[in-house]
Amino acid sequence: MIEDKNQQRTELSQLGEFGLIDHLSKNFEVKQQSTIKTIGDDAAVLEFKDKRVVVTTDFLVEGVHFDLSYMPLKHLGYKAVIVNLSDVYAMNAEATQVTVSIAVSNRFPLEAIEELYAGIQTACKLYNVDLVGGDTTSSTSGLIISVTAIGQVDKDKEVYRSGAKPNDLLVVSGDIGGAYLGLQVLEREKEVFKVNPNNQPDLEAYTYIIERQLKPEARKDVIKLLQDLDVKPTSMIDISDGLSSEILHLCKHSKVGCDLYENKLPLDPQVISTCEEFNLDSTTIALNGGEDYELLMTVSQEDFPKIKANPNLTVIGYITEENAGAHLVTRADQKIKLTAQGWNSFDKD
Ligand code: ADP
Ligand code: MG
């Protein structure tokens, strides 16, 4: 929470817009060769020589995408960068630069924005990307952050949603469902806290899933791994809305169907135990919980020997002809049509 610390409060108006930009950006170092001109002019200048350039952008809106009562600002800054890098990696590209635009109300002191930028800086360092620009403006109520990420990829190496072919393997990195469950735990603790503010929650049993929610990572390592294994996926997408929804995107764009196997879904033990505690079906959570930022891809059967022993990659099904449709094959060997209850920001509720 931003108001609960008895710390210094410097009004943003004391610095002014330009003072604030200078203050926030002064500690960022340039690492990428492709960054020719960074923050400080009317525009950044980048040079990519013979590479292709990928560009992606995402909004994070207070009250819609995050709740500052349990999301520390440092984590929010980190996550705002990560969700964009994840989209770059989903193109099989290397992330190189980001721009960060913020709209802030006077509810936030300088110290809060410093925290946000500390998280942004940590992500930039860890993922080796340069902050090369942005925009700063005021907002009447909440905090809005928009990050744009830029990346590079060799010609013919980029991977789209549209390349999956029948018989390809459906593969996912890491494990899924954790970020959504982490959010459920945080929401529950928030309610407990409202009733009794002195109640300090014991979150020991949920450290992994809470971290998945508050401090997600983008799978830069998986892009490198695929390169090292000499595997170019036939299609790829990152898991932001939930596995079902992403599988259906791949199927639609590639004009294929698929069989997904329930017993192959990679679940962390904490996901299983927390599902039991909350009386939730772990398959439903794995299929529909979002924000895991894992990579979902299809891989040609020929490449199976290269990926089969790898602990970072799990084969969860295979691609079929379009007219066969997209199905979940249950543990009881029943075939159920896949539907997406994924996260939709235009849903009424
Ligand atoms: P302009 O008026 O041309 O839009 P600004 O004063 O908004 O210029 O920005 C000056 C410089 O600071 C630009 O390089 C811009 O990209 C950068 N910048 C502005 N806001 C941010 C921010 N929140 N984070 C990082 N860089 C920023
Ligand atoms: Mg501007």
TrEMBL record:
Catalytic activity from the UniProt record: thiamine phosphate + ATP = thiamine diphosphate + ADP
Pfam families for this protein: AIRS
All copies of domain PurM-like N-terminal, residue ranges: 40-153
Binding site for Mg(2+) 1: T57, D58, D135
Listed SUPFAM superfamilies: PurM C-terminal domain-like, PurM N-terminal domain-like
EC numbers on record: 2.7.4.16
Membrane-crossing segments per the record: none
Catalytic class of the enzyme: transferase
Keywords, alphabetical: ATP-binding, Kinase, Magnesium, Metal-binding, Nucleotide-binding, Thiamine biosynthesis, Transferase
GO molecular function, one term: ATP binding
Pathway linked to the protein: Cofactor biosynthesis; thiamine diphosphate biosynthesis; thiamine diphosphate from thiamine phosphate: step 1/1
Binding residues annotated for Mg(2+) 3, in chain numbering: D42, D87, D238
Binding site residues for Mg(2+) 5: D241
Positions annotated to bind Mg(2+) 2: D58, D87
Top-level taxon of origin: Bacteria
Binding site for substrate: H65, E291, W343
Record keyword DNA repair present: no
Residues holding Mg(2+) 4: D42, T56, D87
More about this protein: Reaction mechanism of ThiL seems to utilize a direct, inline transfer of the gamma-phosphate of ATP to TMP rather than a phosphorylated enzyme intermediate.
NCBIfam families: thiL
Family stated for the protein in its record: Belongs to the thiamine-monophosphate kinase family.
Function: Catalyzes the ATP-dependent phosphorylation of thiamine-monophosphate (TMP) to form thiamine-pyrophosphate (TPP), the active form of vitamin B1.
Protein name: Thiamine-monophosphate kinase
Lineage: Bacteria, Pseudomonadati, Bacteroidota, Flavobacteriia, Flavobacteriales
Gene symbol of the encoding locus: thiL
